[in-house]
Amino acid sequence: MATEKPDTLHGRILDEFSRKIVDGTWPPGYLLPKETELAAQYGVSRMTMNKVLTRLASDGFVIRRKRSGTVVAQPRAESAVLAINNIGEEVAALGRRYKWALLSSENRAGHAQDRRLLSLNEDEAQDNSLFLQGLHYSNDEPFCLETRVINTQMVPDALTVNFQHDVPGSWLLNTMPWTRARHHVRAINVSGRDATLLELPVGAACLEVLRRTQIDAHWVTCARLLYPGEAHQLIAEFDGKIGV
């Protein structure tokens, strides 16, 4: 972490807080006192303390949520850029409890908004397709918001699956081998219902992964995975023999 120079009061507080997190004095999940209480304790203005906490959050050391306050962040989940990962296994790898909650399931034709959100081609999902949305949880906190459409012409069995129990991505990985996949990754600022579901303030940074899998020329599923930015990062490894 690139802290401020500790010769200022703000810098000394930032340095002290970061050391407490790094050395485990404040372990992952530790709830910090309220901003006003910390400001009074250290004899600074609330604006100064807000600046300290905002910097810690931007560096990934703490998570600031409307309802639960400021907590020390868990180690970030890592996903390979080109891998198709099981989100439940990502959460388990962090030593946390995993839970899936289905929010909606609709068998219908797609529309313009679906095409924009999921990067569907104009001729896709024109007939009845299965649209799903749900939340992946880590220790009862939102970890990833998933919005997905499944091509029921290619995967008719999906219409009989209880996706309240079976996680769509895991079920597809186990039952539908794919021959081609594409990921589109970008950073976005969350808004509207997405922010509410992820329990984030409007404008918070999120990582959006658009995933498309195919069998030969036929699409199987398109999914949008939205992660709170402070809780997730992507990794990639490159062979040194590959040209730049």
Short description:
The protein has 244 residues and is of the alpha+beta class.
Structure report:
By secondary structure, the chain is α+β, with helices and mostly antiparallel strands. The chain has 2 domains: 64 residues, Winged helix-like DNA-binding domain superfamily/Winged helix DNA-binding domain (Arc Repressor Mutant, subunit A), CATH 1.10.10; 159 residues, 3-Layer(aba) Sandwich (Chorismate lyase), CATH 3.40.1410. Helix content is 26%, strand content 32%. It is built from 7 helices and 10 strands. A hairpin with a 2-residue loop joins β5 and β6. The longest helix is centred in the N-terminal third of the chain and has 14 residues.
SS class: alpha+beta
Following the backbone from N to C, one meets helices and strands in this order, namely: HHHEEEHEHEEHEHEEE
Distance between the termini: 29 Å
Question: How many beta-strand segments?
Answer: 10
Query: Could you list the spans in which at least 5 consecutive residues all have pLDDT below 50?
Result: 1-6, 240-244
Strand content: 25-35%
CATH class of the largest domain: Alpha Beta
| Order of neighbouring strands in the sheet with most strands | 4-5-6-9-8-7
Helical content class? 25-40%
Q: What fold name goes in the CATH topology slot of the largest domain?
A: Chorismate lyase
Radius of gyration: 21 Å
- What count of helical segments does DSSP give? 7
What's the number of structural domains? 2
Give the mean pLDDT. 84
CATH-level-2 architecture of the largest domain = 3-Layer(aba) Sandwich
CATH superfamily name of the largest domain? Chorismate lyase-like
Largest sheet: 6 strands, antiparallel
Q: Outline, from the CA principal axes? A: elongated
